[in-house]
Design goal:
This protein is α+β, with helices and mostly antiparallel strands. Helices cover 35% and strands 24% of the residues.
Length: 111
Amino acid sequence: MTEINATSIEELIANATDLPLDRVDYVNNVRINVGLNEVTLDFFYVSPNPKNPQGEPQVKHSQRIILPVSVAKETGELLMSSMLRWEETFGVALPFSSQSEEIFLLEGKEE
């Protein structure tokens, strides 16, 4: 009979290999689409066009991540908790854009 090693997810994550530097992206924009069973996060980097600073910005679609709704909810709660601790630590209150919420509600609906 094969013995199953009961390793916690924290131990597995602690021993995970790191991403190579060319796989790490900085992003400054995210779009969220909520479906019945999953949440899709599309990450983008938006920057001025160095050849035409007054023109259309450059946009790079960096990553798409699809999460089960339960993981997405837990991730959202962890992110909010982390940001509240950051604000308390540094004495900075980050603005929340109601426009971002409206975009989420409009784009997040699946027909």
